Amino acid sequence: MGKRIRLVIFIIFIGSLLLSCQKGKEQYETSYHAKRDGIDILLKEELDIMQRKRNVTLAAVGDILIHDRVYNDAKGTEGYHFMPMLEKVQPYLSQPTITTANQETMIGGEEIGLSSYPRFNSPVAVGDALKTVGVDIVSLANNHTLDRGEQAIQRAISHWNNINMPYVGSYHSQEDSEKVRVIHTEEDISLSFLGYTYGTNGIPTPDGKEYLVNRINRKAIAKDVKKAKKVSDVVVLNLHFGNQYERMPNEKQKDLVQYVADLGVDVVFGHHPHVLQPMEWIEGEKGNRTFVIYSLGNFLSGQDEFYRRIGGMVQLTIQKEWDKGKERITLHSPKFLPTFVDFTEESESDYQVIPMYQLTDEQLTDHEKHYKEMQQHLSQWMPELTFIEK
Question: Which tens digit of pLDDT belongs to each residue from 15-74?
Fold first, then answer.
């Protein structure tokens, strides 16, 4: 994938925290020539690493919601092939330093029987395709997590582990759930990821196995955020919330985002409405700034209503600056790539995720008008938002 990252999973113990706080000053040398009175003089200057700036990019896509018509279209003579559906967006997903996705359906595999709405179970090949196109970590906490019970969850997590794909929001054990997922980049910028859902469609969590899915609970979120902040520069939160098919966030969404901003969360990626909702900057009680997109919509799904076929990839630049022994993190340059799920309606086949700016009128009538409207919708609270078009 060409991405320069490595995963570190932290178990928060007091001893490890003490060790992690002991940071050296690491210095390096550079040299250059300067001319003085016609004489070349070699100057050596020690540059403190804490006077530098470094940048990474973080991206996210929305719901990977695999209906039967999608996995039937992917079925071949030798398994399931989802790559043709994602090949047009692969260059965009693989470019950011870190890309995350909301895996809405459990990839429990064929052995326990594939299924669609209302209780999903998907082929493991979905995970393989996401790994190939550049996704680095997935969120599993959503209203469909418990659709097929613990068996599907355990099988899915086993496959995520087999392909070395980190996951958050659903875990195979209590011990697993207590580990903070942190991705460290070569730029010495670390990002932790958390995920929670409002509910599971009325399906109860098995007694004593709350680790199977993280539910939105403010005290639990506060505890987890506190742990994450101790071991990472940036805290990224996936929230499965809001009203389905509504294009604007409700007051409960806004209130929860303000709460996590006050906790010091840096980024919030919203999921569940299956349509795109706007993004904005939220100021926390300590003057910090939190980025939120309330809903990333569907990225790949079998839903055929117009706005449910539009999703995209949001991208942010994260800058870490060292100045006189102090570290400062800033987020800037939000970008968005709107996408459209194209398919042949008569045969429910040829599913493909396409950047909206590449569409033709044959694929979507009046595509330029729809693209412009989507730009206005997304940027209404964030006028500096730019759109990826190359």
Answer: 444 344 433 323 322 222 233 344 344 443 444 444 589 999 999 999 999 999 999 999
Task: Kindly report, residue by residue over 369-389, the tens digit of the pLDDT.
Answer: 999 999 999 999 999 999 999
Contact 271, 141 (CB under 8 A): no
Q: Helices marked H in 28-124 — which ranges?
A: 68-74, 83-86, 90-94
Q: What is the mean pLDDT of residues 123-127?
A: 99
Q: What is the pLDDT of residue 381?
A: 98
Which residue type, as a one-letter code, is found at position 21?
A: C
**Phi, psi (deg, nearest 5) at residue 144:** -105, 5
Nearest to 373 by CA among 241, 226, 275: 275
Q: What is the DSSP letter of 278?
A: E
Residue 254 CA to residue 285 CA, distance in Å, equals 15
Residue with token string 């790539």: 337
Rounded Cα–Cα distance for residues 153 and 90 (Å): 27
Q: What mean pLDDT do residues 320-331 have?
A: 89
* Cβ–Cβ < 8 Å for 77, 37: no
CATH number for the domain running over 5-10+49-387: 3.60.21.10
Phi first, then psi: give them for residue 35, nearest 5 degrees.
Answer: -100, 125
Nearest to 117 by CA among 65, 72, 177, 195: 65
Domain boundaries, the chain: 5-10+49-387
pLDDT digits (tens, 9 = 90+) for 207-220: 999 999 999 999 99
Tell me how far apart the alpha carbons of residues 64 and 342 are, in angstroms, rounded to a whole number.
15
Beta pairing, strands 39-48 & 27-36? antiparallel
